[in-house]
Amino acid sequence: MKEKILFGSFLIIAIALIVIAPTPVASGQPQKGKAPGEQLITVMNPAIATKMAERVPLCSRPGTLEGKTIYMVDLQWGGPEAAYSVFEEMQAWFAKNMPSVKTEIRRSGGGPFGDDQGLRKEITEKKAGGAIIGIGG
């Protein structure tokens, strides 16, 4: 009985939405009161392109890290203080196990999806031996 009531309620709501809701014209024909060039909706195609993106090889690995500077860049996924200690632990490991390697911890100003051009410029100008980029935690 409960299922019949639920189904009947769903059916009544669906019919009411079909009858009451205005339906946009998908054929490109203008609706009543709309200008001929006025667009009602934008439809995006989520399909994957059939052509693969151009593959770019990774840079070669350095022979050694001895005497080089490694930048550790926090992308701040969970905010400025989210598990920042992970980078500090890595820095402590380098200090203990590879004392000739200098480490610099930086936070990306662009966040997890942006670009921090100033930081990128700093890393390039100082000719860093490498960078560890990620999120802590």
Rg calculated over all Cα atoms? 28 Å
Shape: elongated
Mean pLDDT rating? 79
Strand count: 3
User: What is the tally of helical segments?
Assistant: 3
Distance between the termini: 51 Å
| Major beta-sheet overview | 3 strands, parallel
Helix content: 25-40%
Order of helices and strands: HEHEHE
Q: Tell me the β content.
A: 5-15%
Question: Residue ranges: pLDDT <50 for 5 or more in a row?
Answer: none
Strand order of the largest sheet: 2-1-3
Primary descriptors:
single chain, alpha/beta, three-stranded parallel β-sheet
Describe this entry's structure for a reader.
By secondary structure, the chain is of the alpha/beta class. It contains three helices and three strands. The protein has helices at residues 2-20, 85-97, 117-125, and strands at 69-74, 102-107, 130-134. The two termini are 51 Å apart.
Itemize the secondary structure elements and their pairings.
Elements: H1 2-20, E1 69-74, H2 85-97, E2 102-107, H3 117-125, E3 130-134
Parallel strand pairs: 1-2, 1-3
Structure in a nutshell:
The chain has 137 residues and is an alpha/beta fold.
